[in-house]
Design a protein that fits this description.
668 residues; Helix Hairpins; D-amino Acid Aminotransferase, Chain A, domain 1; DNA polymerase, domain 1; 5-stranded mixed sheet; 5-stranded antiparallel sheet; 37% helix; 18% strand; globular; binds adenosine monophosphate; binds zinc ion
């Protein structure tokens, strides 16, 4: 090894350690000046020796890489959101649910602050950071690696060198001090200040020039490790380990063994959060045991083993100017309050959701009232009350509309409906475009080059009136439209053409059958394999399908009983849209496990736990988290939880191995 190479390696190691001491531990041992000198020396040597380039060198922290477009990548493991709670009672309810599902009361929890920034998923391979991806929609996010690498408190290389691969998740935040400093500088430079730290942090991740990101005092706080091969048993131990590896895990993390300890944590931080160096909007309570987490699993949106507790939101008072009404794609009407703009928790609020007519009545709203607005978990804030003392005499109650604001059809409200509906399903413009917008949306057909606005434009120009019409469009139709360049027309047509390759389960979701969401569509596609069999299914047959209840079954029947919908399906078929599972999907699927419920526990040899679960579902079986009388088999690997073993035995449920399982599906 040349002496220069040796020096480079040494400097990198030294700078890494200083970085860690400065940015993570906040205990620097050398001056900033000395640090800069060492960094300069490293940069100089690296420039002289491009052959020793290392993407994870401390010199890379200064950025300089320019990203024109951030690539979308799929998360290996989905990034879920969290269920919210706003009171101690809700926390208690959750705790009871957890205990009931686990069948025990001695459950330990951890409490962490809920850091308010932008979530990030970091992939490490052999001890090195290889990729950083934003949460996006939870399934896919944007690759922002170049920008994230500039965050000094995030280790690019781990302390213990070559590790197994894992993902670690955290929140990229902008600490208050840095945020205020940035704003002082902006104001001095005559620029508008940034609104709040959270938006500025997430905006920073999307800057094209990573050198600009490097200038921002961003920080990354970690809260979860995702890996199939962890030897730790608890969330707490995993985070402590991550912290030893150089990650910044806030010391506020705490184990709570009783409800009182949890409440104490909530109260303490509600009162003391103003003293924190960064913003927090609540606490995240998690089940500490990883086995129990696994047993509890996930709903379609969030883990059952975690709960966010939101601190009481900030309130603002402002004037209600008017109420307008929005029509959804199903015809549901939502009233929206138009407010005198007011600052609330760092953003300017102009509108608030009013949900439905009952809500307006309950609040007894009058135009011109001074109202209280709060930000709950929702994106749009809500009105929580009226300042009655400030009401002027003679203020009139709000008259709810009787007609659709869009097509003027008289509104209907059936027994049990929360909202009013416009019944003009096939003539109401918003409903027509809403259905097409749903069809092209990311989670449905994901048609590139065709967004919500284009759908409206095409509809207004009488080019489409349903989603099947999309496939008849030609570039010649589109180019003459306003703001439509030839390039975008080509892209749109190509995107529509490509959508004929989208798998059947997504098509089924895209059709827009009421109550048929992504998960239900997947179940139906697997069960019926093609649309013809689904269309022939009776009410009784539909309700025997796992997770299909009467409401969904009826809605499917209603949908296909309309000749116009059958016609749409016929047309989609002629355009080549996938209305059946393809060969490949069929080849690894069957219904052999139909009606059987499995619980999976332990570590396996051949398949990973997730592969095993997927395989069960692919063959029509059901995977559940905890053992009950309804369980058909328990598949046990190494280290199966002892409590599960006892429970299975006491209920007389067969415990089988992974190999027994593979034999079951062998011929399919
Ligand atoms: P929400 O966006 O309200 O559904 O909340 C879920 C998000 O909270 C996650 O995606 C995380 O980015 C964020 N979060 C912040 N702090 C934590 C924490 N300590 N544990 C888990 N998630 C957290
Ligand atoms: Zn209407």
């Amino acid at each position: 090894m040349s002496s220069d190479q040796k020096k480079i390696i040494e400097l990198r190691k030294e700078l890494r350690e200083h970085n860690y001491r400065y940015y993570v531990l906040d205990q620097p041992v050398i001056s900033d000046y000395e640090f800069d000198m060492k960094l300069n020396e490293l940069v100089k040597l690296e420039t002289e020796h491009p052959e020793f380039y290392d993407p994870n060198s401390p010199s890379q922290r200064v950025g300089g890489e320019v990203t024109k477009k951030f690539n979308t990548v799929e998360h290996k493991n989905r990034m879920y959101s969290l269920d919210n709670s706003y009171s101690h009672e809700e926390v208690l309810d959750w705790q009871k649910r957890v205990q009931k599902l686990l069948g025990r009361e001695d459950v330990e929890y951890t409490c962490e602050l809920k850091y308010d920034g932008a979530s990030i998923n970091l992939s490490y391979d052999k001890g090195k950071l290889v990729r950083a991806v934003t949460r996006g929609d939870g399934v896919k996010g944007d690759d922002v690696t170049a920008n994230v690498k500039t965050i000094r408190s995030l280790p690019l290389v781990l302390k213990e060198g070559e590790q197994e691969s894992f993902e670690i998740r955290g929140e990229i935040i902008l600490p208050l001090e840095g945020f205020l400093k940035m704003n002082r500088e902006r104001i001095e430079a005559g620029e508008d200040p940034y609104r709040n730290p959270r938006n500025t942090a997430s905006g920073s991740l999307k800057l094209q020039d990573s050198a600009e990101v490097a200038d921002r005092p961003l920080d990354c706080l970690l809260y979860q490790v995702v890996s199939d091969n962890l030897s730790f048993r608890t969330h707490y131990d995993v985070l402590k380990y991550a912290s030893q590896q150089g990650f910044k895990v806030p010391e506020t993390l705490q184990i709570c063994r009783t409800t009182d300890e949890i409440f104490e944590f909530l109260t303490y931080w509600d009162e003391h959060r103003d003293g924190l160096p960064y913003e927090t909007d609540g606490v995240v309570i998690k089940v500490n045991s990883l086995d129990y987490q696994e047993e509890l699993g996930y709903t379609s949106k969030s883990p059952r083993w975690a709960l966010a507790y939101k601190f009481k939101a900030e309130q603002a008072k402002t004037r209600l100017n008017s109420v307008s009404y929005q029509v959804g794609r199903t015809g549901a009407i939502t009233p929206v309050a138009n407010l005198e703009p007011v600052e609330l928790a760092g953003t300017v609020v102009k509108r608030a959701s009013l949900h439905n007519a009952d809500q307006i009545e309950k609040l007894d709203l009058r135009l011109g009232d001074l109202v209280y607005v709060e930000k709950g978990g929702e994106i749009i804030p809500k009105i929580t009350g009226v300042d009655l003392a400030a009401r002027s005499n003679g203020a009139q109650p709000i008259q709810y509309i009787a007609e659709c604001p869009d097509c003027h059809t008289p509104l209907e409200r059936k027994e049990g409906d929360a909202k009013h509906f416009c019944p003009n399903e096939f003539g109401c413009p918003t409903q027509i475009t809403g259905r097409i917008q749903h069809y092209v949306s990311r989670k449905a057909m994901d048609i590139e080059g065709l967004g919500s606005e284009s759908v409206e434009l095409l509809y207004k120009n009488h080019l489409i009136s349903n989603y099947a019409d999309l496939y008849e469009l030609t570039e010649k139709d589109i180019i003459p439209l306003e703001r439509m360049a030839e390039k975008s027309a080509t892209n749109m047509i190509q995107g529509i053409r490509n959508s004929t390759q989208v798998p059947f389960e997504k098509v089924l979701f895209a059709l827009g059958i009421r109550f048929v969401g992504e998960t239900v569509a997947k179940k139906l596609a697997r069960h019926y394999k093609n649309i013809d069999q689904l269309m022939e299914a009776t009410f009784e047959q539909l309700t025997t399908v796992d997770e299909i209840g009467e409401k969904i079954a009826q809605s499917i029947l209603d949908f296909f009983s309309l000749e116009s919908n059958r016609e749409l399906v016929r047309r989609l078929r002629t355009y080549g849209v996938q209305l059946a599972l393809n060969e490949q999907e069929l080849s690894y699927q069957s219904n052999v496990l139909s009606g059987k419920a499995f619980v999976v526990s332990g570590v396996f040899e051949v398949l990973s736990r997730n592969e095993l679960k997927k395989s069960i579902e692919d063959h029509g079986g059901k995977v559940t988290g905890s053992i009950s009388k309804k369980t058909t088999y328990v598949i046990a690997g190494d280290n199966m939880g002892p409590s599960k073993k006892v429970k299975a035995e006491s209920l007389g449920i067969p415990i089988i191995t992974e190999h027994d399982y593979l034999k079951m599906i062998e011929n399919f």
